[in-house]
Specification:
118 residues; alpha+beta; Ubiquitin-like (UB roll); 5-stranded mixed beta sheet; 4 helices; 5 strands; elongated
Length: 118
């Protein structure tokens, strides 16, 4: 009776460095175990799986999920800024600069405004 092995990649990146490690593990090994067996935490001391989210092929996954053969496990860095807050500040700035309609927030329709004046 032989143990079936699956091959998975474990990926992590910082602005300065990116690393993708390939590891073979027995089928049914969890995401957390794959990360541990890859040794990627030795290359990046800032990885904290209690704080950081993980995914498989850009879809969120739990640490106890079992990846399939050929999957890539990705460890995500925490966000620096809240995307909603950044988008809201950008929209407010566009309204103040006249690049957006002050009521709807959409682009001002200067052509329609010009036609209505004629």
């Amino acid at each position: 009776m032989s143990i079936e092995l699956v091959t998975v990649e474990v990926a992590y990146a910082t602005p300065e460095k990116q690393l993708i490690l390939t590891v073979q593990v027995p089928q049914g090994t969890t995401v957390a175990q794959c990360i541990e067996r890859s040794g990627i935490e030795q290359h990046f001391t800032d990885i904290d799986l209690n704080q950081q989210k993980v995914g498989i092929w850009n879809k969120a996954a739990k640490l106890d999920a079992a990846p399939r053969d050929g999957d890539r496990i990705e460890i995500y860095r925490p966000l620096i800024a809240d995307p909603k807050a950044v988008r809201k500040r950008r929209a407010e700035r566009a309204k103040q600069e006249g690049r957006a309609d002050k009521v709807t927030g959409g682009r001002p329709d200067t052509q329609r405004n010009q036609r209505s004046k004629e």
